[in-house]
């Protein structure tokens, strides 16, 4: 009953337009919605559900966060919606994937750019890795590149789509090795791309570290290299591309975090930016993320702003010729 | 099939409209860029246009047999319901809020098409009760059980 | 026989309670328009946070099987298919309900769901290693031919004119291309912002099936229901068993098609019901009765869509690849407990794996018992007066299509498609082939593009798409299916021409 009364009071306030002028001290007053631009069950969705599960706690936001999936076209559908149709009232959050949405906005044909959103905090960083089937003759990146150099354009390898992290990694590999490769984007995301590798439809693939780690545990693939600056805790035995002699940085690492549409009141942004990172640090969240094989990487709003700007610059350079 | 069949003119109009859509689809598919994203739409729209023109031709020659068509009296009977349904969906649901709009639309539609007398109090109370019961079930199912976030209501 | 060793775990009181909750809750969620099995399972995931891994999986497994069956309830009673899997069920099921045979239709659908479902889970238990290879055998070229096979079904499916059936299918294929294209990310035919995300299949299903029915109820006007009251025939459960036993062909075809097609990642669940329906129609001596409330139609469709549940989990459980959206959600449910599907699951957590599989087995039985129990009662929905029914279905359609992804755009699309479909139906077009086109479009397109990319990088288009045993087999089936349709059409035309001459 109490909840019902509180709900009625809230709705009344919303109708009369008393959006509190006192710096949004009472925010949030009702449950919050977070848009994920990938389908239920995908890596982003799975992680978003875990990191927001403690939002209802009193030391976090005090209100639950509900996940809303708007999948389609590599995330474009969801981010278009967030940039143009979502209400910027602080009750609609969105999950971001870097470099995906920045790369897509540079490529064009979408209604958003890095300026359309305000970051809140980052929760995870999932590097791309290069995988091959368990029976593949390739045992290192050098084997792969040698084959590609001997057979230009014949090395088929899968990834989650065009202008997403995997595609960026593929472009970097092509540029750093100087070999011509055949990148095959999959319409079913990382899971579809992984299936293509395991079934032998393609000779290799770029995939998420978390999914590749799981596939290796199941004995289906070999992981040849990590597209990051240093080796990953989940895969200490897998060398980075850089160690194998390819000048590739962390531009393709899939950073996941929370953002709000531009125009959200500054008071709310500040409040979220202060609480959300601590919410991610919760022990239960960390435990579940680790169990699921998802690397965490918590960053505050200022760090994320910096990272966005840096990414935009490298991506513009990388995608300039396309 | 049913007893009435559509007239030749009706078939011509219906298949003509579909053919027009088909031509528009084909035109758009062949003119939009980038071409590689429109390979499949081109293929589909070509078959679409051929089949639509075939149907249109058959209709013009009076060979179309299938379909019951629409009669004027049917159209008049459905019109009020259709208009209310469309207002409800395209404006009221978002403008007034889902539960408010549904309550109103449900009650109006029920009253419009209920064969029971419109003159006695008893039947009006019955209709109100049905509406109330239905809305309680809908609210319980969608708002409470499934936690669907509907657009804000204007009255509460 | 390892699964028998863990059978006891399902019957621990708390576990059994979860199983009951999952089954009954799943039936209710499945019967709610707009709530596909994927969404229903996703909704239950937060509850499993608090449970142990095996218990959480019992809840999810039971819910998965019973939501698939629950979708038949709204398909039969309201003509709103809860998910693509239930489209074929509406064709005969709803006609039966309108004739007052709703109880029979529901009983048959639950019984054949249980038979198909149990068979599917048994396949999962005994043949997993074989099935895993089979699931991986389907590459882009094979999936493309499979989609084309689906397209050939379009012309003969629930349509009185082959040309209009094909045209309906083409409209569906075109509608499926609206929105961002999945691979290139180019915008196609977005002439209204509501179409930005493309046409959501669930919203389209609701619109295409439910709205024409609402409008035709309006079109009947203020009829006195006195003349229209449907007598809901009581149907003893015993005779439902007999009815099922007297149609072994439909049951066999449904179960076989469902388990084979259900296994193919990404395609299976959505078209299994329709393909099974079409096949049993082609093989049935009473094929003219299909679409007029014929038991075989319900049996084939429902046994197929539940038979696919077990095999559809094979790629997930053995290879850790989710083969369907629902499997992807279940994967999340496992990962949260730190369990990786694949060899890890069966070697290190056999209790979780087998309890999960057992719960689906027992869940089928519970689902069937519960369904049979309420069938007679639920069938009374057919007695609800038209005026009330029209308003209820309309409201459910609006709420259902909105709840898919909390989007007004989906509601607009639902209403626009539905209103258009009503007028199309008056001129001999039908919704089933249109929906099939809508489902098959993306499968055909994406696999053709991926296949041609791989082919041009390797050995060329023709060898990639036209060689190999599986490709050739599929092509032969496609050609056979086309010839069969043409032959049936010609034969039917000869008959009708004779009739016309006589009149």
Question: What would you note in describing this structure?
Answer:
The complex is a heterotrimer of chains A (322), B (156) and C (503). By secondary structure, chain A is of the alpha/beta class. Chain A contains 11 helices and 11 strands. In chain A, the strands form 2 sheets. A 6-stranded mixed beta sheet of chain A has the order 2-1-3-10-4-11, sandwiched between helices. Chain A has a 5-stranded mixed beta sheet with strand order 7-6-8-5-9. Chain B folds into 2 domains: 1-69; 70-156, no CATH class. Chain B is built from 5 helices and no strands. Chain B starts with 7 loop residues before the first helix and ends in an 11-residue tail after the last helix. Chain C is an all-alpha fold and 503 residues long. Chain C has one domain. In chain C, strands 1-2 form a two-stranded antiparallel sheet. Chain C is globular. Chain C starts with a helix and ends with a helix. The relative contact order of chain C is 0.18. Classes of the chains: A alpha/beta (322), B mainly alpha (156), C mainly alpha (503). Chains in contact: A-B, A-C, B-C. Chains A and C meet through helix 2, helix 3, strand 7, helix 7 and helix 8 of A and helix 4, strand 1, helix 17 and helix 22 of C.
Q: What is the gist of this entry?
A:
The complex is a heterotrimer of chains A (about 325), B (about 160) and C (about 500). Chain B is about 70% helix and about 0% strand. Chain B has helices spanning about 10-30, 40-60, 70-95, 100-115, 120-145.
